[in-house]
Amino acid sequence: MKINHNFDNLVPNYLFADIAKKSSEYAAAHPDKPLIRMGIGDVTLPLPKVAVDALKKGAEDLAHKESFKGYPDYEGYDFVREAISKYYASFGVTVSADEILVTDGAKGDSANLSEIFSQDSVVLVTDPVYPVYVDSNIMAGRKILYAPSNEENGFCAAPDESVHADLIYLCSPNNPTGAAFSKDQLKAWVDYANKEDAVIIYDAAYEHFIVDDSPRSIFAIEGARTCAIEICSMSKTAGFTGTRGGYTVIPKELVRDGHNIYDLWYRRLSTKYNGVSWPVQCAIAAIFSEQGMAEIDDNINYYRENASTIMATLDKLGIEYTGGKNSPYVWMKCPKGMGSWEFFDYILEEIQVVGTPGEGFGDCGKGWFRFTSFGSHENTVEAMKRMEKLLG
After folding, report:
1. What tens digit of pLDDT does each residue of 10-42 get?
2. Rounded distance, CA 227 to CA 54, Å?
3. CA nearest to 129, candidates 145, 109, 152, 118
4. pTM attached to this predicted model
5. Confidence check: pLDDT of 264 > 90
């Protein structure tokens, strides 16, 4: 019996596993120097009360014969999909409930959607890139091309008309750089995908952080319904990193190679997946209520304040950065010409602050570094005081 040797082509460790290992080793060796962790993009505030109440009620429903729920519909309950559809309408985008599929989060969908496309599909990702887009396609043995996102283009890559791709992964606001595509920039990608008969897998996990006129959905762009799939997560919108919930939108007119993509994905789901639990779906629907929207806005504003603290410090130090405005991530240029991992080790040793080396996201991340705003106010302020003292 042989294994899938495409796994041999993966880097030995997942980026965040390396960060966790280095951080844990330092903490064990220096128990008197507690770390401030600003690397992994995990939320720290509790779930909104409206979600907790819905989870409790949903769990109580399962305790009574008359309200008990077994296997859910593969695509999610109608009332949840209707709530998501109305949410899209609230910012001017039309997505019908029967184009929405409720899932356990964007990470799994971003990897698993590629299963419905041929193994010889050419994949195009932006660089720097969220590692899952790359690793999942390496596992499948696909050819991967990179569109550089760098200082020159404001970390918003543009399509190269001389390059052909079949699958395109875009994330906006971007993880890791925090940059968000403008309407014109996103329209260029949509036009390119339609011309190439390609499909865009669009990760909108951070759309609720947008404060300017950047598109919050790819379906705000004319032509996207014939070339795009949108995935979104409740993890960063509503703090569901440990609860798990999200959704994917596939327009019914998206067809490739004579096949309806929604139907193919539904067929895949019905074979390999049994859906999201009743209590979690109740919590997802509650988030999209008026009270839910108010509560998540309070939480996101908390993280925005942290981002402002980070940006103010970098401004004072004269360090270049992107992100922070439409994103929980601040992507900074390493000072003094340091490399990404060099800067990681430097601030770990000197001030006990943990971030994410940009190099771990691709070649264009070399010399850059990511901080997350998902910590507490107190830790964020303290970390930036240490940064200012070290680099000022």
Report:
1. 987 778 888 989 999 999 999 999 999 998 888
2. 35
3. 145
4. 0.96
5. yes
